[in-house]
């Protein structure tokens, strides 16, 4: 069983397992992560760089996915958000992603959420 971890950005102690997630990979307060996986959950990356939250995309079923970019090696990955993630921070990251939407989509290959109302429906329901 994985242990708690300290956020690489805000230094808060984060539980690995908590309400709404079984395999947390990011801080629920600032959404930063650490580059530890080559593939989701494998913990095989040697990079260890800090991964900046850069936007949100959706799986085919509409589930919200958080997009990270590693500040050290540039790897981009997407992972699920969790039930206890800070909603206001989600909206802040969303707003910031709109300023660089085209650039983020080009380098990541992901289609970003661009509609705040659609994002709110996915977060809170209708």
Task: Provide structural commentary.
With 126 residues, this protein is of the alpha+beta class. The protein has one domain (5-124). It is built from three helices and six strands; from the N terminus they run ββββββααα. It has helices at 87-99, 101-108, 116-124; strands spanning 5-6, 13-14, 33-34, 50-58, 64-70, 76-80. The strands form two sheets. A four-stranded antiparallel sheet has the order 3-4-5-6. A two-stranded antiparallel sheet has the order 1-2. A hairpin with a 6-residue loop joins strand 1 (5-6) and strand 2. The protein is globular and about 35 Å long.
Topology of this structure?
Blueprint: E1 5-6, E2 13-14, E3 33-34, E4 50-58, E5 64-70, E6 76-80, H1 87-99, H2 101-108, H3 116-124
Kindly list the characteristics that best describe this protein.
alpha+beta, 6 strands, 126 residues, two-stranded antiparallel sheet, 24% helix
């Amino acid at each position: 069983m994985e242990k708690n971890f300290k956020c690489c950005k805000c230094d808060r102690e984060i539980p690995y397992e908590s309400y709404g997630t079984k395999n947390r990979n990011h801080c629920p307060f600032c959404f930063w992560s650490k580059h530890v996986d080559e593939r989701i959950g494998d913990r095989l990356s040697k990079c260890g760089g800090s991964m900046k939250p850069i936007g949100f995309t959706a799986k085919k079923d509409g589930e919200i996915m958080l997009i990270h970019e590693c500040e050290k090696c540039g790897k981009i990955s997407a992972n699920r958000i969790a039930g206890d993630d800070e909603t206001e921070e989600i909206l802040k990251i969303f707003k910031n992603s709109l300023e660089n939407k085209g650039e983020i989509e080009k380098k990541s290959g992901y289609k970003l959420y661009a509609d705040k109302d659609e994002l709110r429906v996915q977060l809170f329901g209708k």
